[in-house]
Design goal:
With 203 residues, the protein is an alpha+beta fold. Helices cover 43% and strands 19% of the residues. The chain folds into 2 domains: 75 residues; 128 residues, no CATH class. The chain has 5 helices and 6 strands; from the N terminus they run E-E-H-E-E-H-H-H-H-E-E. Helix 2 runs antiparallel to helix 3 and helix 2 packs antiparallel against helix 5.
Length: 203
């Protein structure tokens, strides 16, 4: 005789436990978590649909503007802010690139190390500490993109350094671009904007 699946529950180790042997408080906890998760999934779907609708509406608006001014339609959209006529509510679209580095970065590091060896020989080692910090990995084992790219802003007239900076530029790989949509509001024309929280922890 095949056992009734309603008479059993699966525990965290994957074992079937007769429902009659499960403590009442564990049954209540299981029911509570499942009920909350069902609502959370529905909320996630609502937010996903809202994001798609908002993105579609904004693209339609931009296409209308493009048509009005005779501009080319389509293509990637950059960062922009749309606001109500009274300026009290605004929607911001921000494009964030996911950046990683190719093998050229190792060459850049070797060139930078060579420069630092020449510059700090018998001198102040603080320069080495500051620059090499850019290549250190953080707690998550990841390189700090902003620190590495920030080296290119240093105005250093040295052929080897310039080759290192070119190697950094060649190492940059943009894996993907992700669009973020954010909503801000303010009470009066002179007050500060505050973000409308769509994070469940901040709502």
């Amino acid at each position: 005789m095949t056992p009734n699946p309603d008479d059993y529950m699966t525990d965290s180790a994957g074992r079937l436990v007769p429902r009659a042997n499960v403590k009442p408080e564990d049954l209540l906890q299981d029911e509570l978590v499942r009920r909350l998760f069902e609502r959370a999934r529905a909320l996630r779907e609502t937010m996903r649909q809202f994001r798609e609708d908002a993105d579609s509406d904004i693209r339609c608006f931009l296409d209308l503007l493009a048509e009005q001014y005779g501009a080319r339609k389509g293509g990637a959209k950059g960062n922009l802010t749309l606001s109500t006529y009274d300026g009290r509510e605004r929607v911001t679209i921000a494009i964030s690139d996911s950046i990683t580095f190719g093998p050229e970065l190792q060459i850049a590091k070797e060139l930078v190390d060579s420069c630092l060896t020449r510059w700090t020989e018998g001198g102040n080692a603080n320069i080495r500490a500051i620059v090499t910090d850019a290549f250190d990995v953080g707690k998550e084992g990841k390189l700090n993109v902003s620190k590495i790219l920030g080296l290119r802003r240093l105005s250093i007239e040295d052929d080897e350094w310039q080759r290192a900076m070119q190697a950094i530029t060649d190492a940059v790989k943009v894996n993907a671009s992700r669009a973020y949509i954010r909503f801000h509001e303010r009470v009066t024309a002179n007050s500060e904007y505050t973000q409308v929280p769509l994070d469940i922890a901040k709502a």
